[in-house]
Structure formats: C-alpha cells, structure tokens
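Protocol step 4 of 5: obtain the predicted structure for the target chain.
Materials: sequence only (see below). No template structures provided, no constraints applied. The aim of this step is simply to have a reference model before the mutagenesis design in step 5. Sequence pasted as it appears in the construct record:
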Amino acid sequence: MNLYLRLIWLLLRFPFMQKPADPLESTQLDMRVWPNDLDLNMHMNNGRYLTVMDLGRLHLTFVNGLLGACLKRGWLPVLGSAKIHYLKPLNLFQKYKLESKVIYWDEKWIYMEQHFFKEDVLCATALLKALFVGKEGKIPSQQLIDLMGKEIACPPAPEVLKRWIECEKRDEI
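Step 4 output (structure tokens):
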C-alpha cells in the first residue's frame, strides 16, 4: 500500500470512530484527491481508486470489530477479486466520500460494495470479494461473522452480485 500517510492518519483516528449499530450498515471515509493521486489526465488514477478502497475495507473491518479480533488470531485480510466501474472523474483537491459495505457472504468469501461520491454524485462503484487467512489456511466466512458478536443473517445476494459470482466461477483457473 503506497498511501502510508493516509494509513497512519486512519490508524490514529480509529479510537475515536463511531461503530455502526448494524454491522451490515455502510461505513464512510471522507477524503480528498492529492497531487500524488493524479494521472496524466489530471484526475485520480484508476489504480489509486483500488488502493484507497484498501483503506475503506480496513476502516469497515475496524468499526465492525473484526480487525482487532482477526489480528489477535494472526489472521490477515486478502482481496480475491474486484470489479470496478468508473463513472465520473475525481479532480485535484476535490473532496470525496468512500462508502464501504458488506452485502453478502458464502462459506469462503465475504462480498462487499464500495462507492465513491463527490457531493451526491456517484463517481465509481465496485464489487469485491475478500477473505481472511491464517496459519490454518482460509478462515470460513461464518467464523468471521460470528466474531462480530451479534446474530447477523446473511442478506440475499443482489442480482448484479449473482451474475458477477457466476462470471467469477466461469473464469476460475
């Protein structure tokens, strides 16, 4: 991750962050586009979106109580796949909001969506699948959900996610 200053700033803010009442609620990070985020077109680089999304997922796992519990067990997050759709550019010094949310899980993967907004305009949207791994291998999703300490029923998979999962299965090596 090449956003060390943003990561340090996020880690310093963790103790003061509000935890959502419902672990399936969206979390939000308010950020700004800096000169090192730009590409030759003078807007945020496509790859930077993916890197910033790492911070959003870190924030999401922290406020849901997963990050600390997983790190104590020696479990680390791993991104399995991401599908992103860029809609509008984010320009230099522009403020934007990154929303992150768990939308579904199966026995292996936790599926999330992340959205970038400038003001109320959707600029990019992504579907992701991730898991945690430890010395014992891949950690089952339900074990992670149970770590949050609340009875949480898996929401139904949105249609767009079902189609993406099918494409992912078809493309597996």
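Step 4 remarks: The first helix runs from residue 4 to 13. The chain has a mean pLDDT of 89.
Proceed to step 5.
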